[in-house]
Amino acid sequence: MPETTCEQLKIPSRLWWNDEEIKNDFEKNEYLYRRFRPDVDYTYDGELSQASFGRSFSPPCNISCNCSSLCKYSTDVLYSIKKEVPHHFKSGVMKAAIRSIKGQPFKYSIQEKSGERWFSGRFDVIHKPEKCMYPHTEILVYNEIDLVTPNEKREVKPNALKLAIRKELAEVFTICHKPDPNFRPPEN
Question: DSSP characters for 28-59?
Answer without folding.
Answer: TT-EEEEEE-TTTSB-TTSPBPGGGGGGGBTT
